[in-house]
Design a protein that fits this description.
Helix content of chain A: 55-70%
Order of helices and strands of chain A: HHHH
Largest interface: A-B, 41 and 41 residues
Protein name (chain B): Succinate dehydrogenase, cytochrome b556 subunit
Strand content of chain B: under 5%
Largest sheet of chain B: none
Shape of chain A: elongated
Distance between the termini of chain A: 84 Å
CATH class of chain B: Mainly Alpha
Number of helices of chain B: 4
Structural class of chain B: mainly alpha
Shape of chain B: elongated
InterPro entries (chain B): SdhC_prok, SQR/QFR_C/D, Succ_DH_cytb556, SuccDH_FuR_B_TM-su
Cofactor (chain B): heme
Radius of gyration of chain B: 19 Å
Radius of gyration of chain A: 22 Å
Number of domains of chain B: 1
Family (chain B): Belongs to the cytochrome b560 family.
CATH topology of chain A: 3 helical TM bundles of succinate and fumarate reductases
Number of helices of chain A: 4
Number of strands of chain A: 0
Oligomer: heterodimer
CATH architecture of chain B: Up-down Bundle
Helix content of chain B: over 70%
CATH topology of chain B: 3 helical TM bundles of succinate and fumarate reductases
Pfam family, one (chain B): Sdh_cyt
């Protein structure tokens, strides 16, 4: 006669209850900490982004290729946008990862959804970084006078 | 899980609803972020193609969409700062409900300021 006892779900267990080397290290704690640290930085980066692009000058009507070229002529804005891209994508990806883990109950479904998420994340981060680093103000149809 | 409508600290109350709001706004912002990087990537392809796509952001219907997006961003930002206080400030869990009302108050003020400025720029000119 033996009763089935479910595996405890808590990560912090008395050592005598730990079964096997199943731990993922402290990845989840680091992910939790990253959400808080990146969150604070993102508040500053996004507020600056919205103020510069939508609230000053002509606002949304002032946006154009020339506006982007003007901003990225300044390395501070290049760095600002690069940091915004990386932090927002990693913060958002970790958030969606958590949601997938919560709601997708089948192992295969979880694996597929997270695989799709990570492919999209890598694609967007690589694409965005390349766009910022290889920006050419004299590209096809550029309206800038120096081109 | 309690099956009655009373007697829980979390379920159906401020804590749960702020968590729901944080998730929903987070997903909305993430989906826009994917689109926004793709539309910005057009600056690397063709200047007039970028301008044509950006022109869609300037029509009145999209201006309302942008206002809703910023409403989501502002809630996620202020509630995120509240979460940090709940996690790291010693009194955070005790005052989490009051902090949520603070978040809502700051959100109303900042959102009103943004909406007035953005909508008058978007509907006003050119």
């Amino acid at each position: 006669m033996s009763a089935e006892i479910a595996e405890p779900r808590s990560q912090r267990l008395d050592p005598k209850y730990v079964r096997g080397p199943k731990s993922r290290g402290n990845f989840e704690m680091l992910a939790w900490l990253f959400m808080r640290l990146s969150g604070v930085v993102l508040v500053i980066l996004i507020f600056g982004h919205l103020i510069a692009n939508l609230l000053t000058g002509e606002g949304v009507n002032g946006l154009s290729f020339g506006f982007v070229a003007g901003k990225w002529a300044d390395p501070v804005w290049q760095f600002w946008d690069l940091a915004l891209l990386w932090l927002s994508m990693l913060h958002g990806t970790n958030g969606v990862r958590t949601i997938i883990n919560d709601y997708a109950e089948k192992h295969a479904t979880r694996a597929w959804l997270k695989g799709l998420l990570y492919v999209a994340t890598i694609f967007i981060i690589v694409l965005g970084s390349l766009v910022i680093f290889t920006f050419d103000p004299c590209i096809v149809n550029s309206p800038l006078p120096q081109c | 899980m309690s099956k009655t409508s009373s007697g829980t600290l979390y379920r159906g109350r401020e804590g749960m609803w702020s968590w729901v709001g944080h998730r929903v706004t987070g997903v909305v912002i993430f989906l826009f972020l994917l689109v926004h990087v793709l539309d910005t990537a057009l600056v690397r392809v063709d200047a007039s193609a970028y301008d044509a796509v950006i022109a869609t952001y300037k029509n009145p219907l999209m201006a309302l969409g942008e206002t809703a997006l910023v409403a989501a961003i502002l809630f996620h930002a202020f509630n995120g700062l509240r979460l940090i206080l709940v996690d790291f400030w010693k009194q955070g869990t005790k005052y989490q409900r009051q902090l949520l009302w603070g978040v809502i108050g700051v959100w109303v003020v900042v959102f009103a300021g943004f909406a007035i400025r953005h909508l008058s720029l978007a509907f006003g000119g050119h």
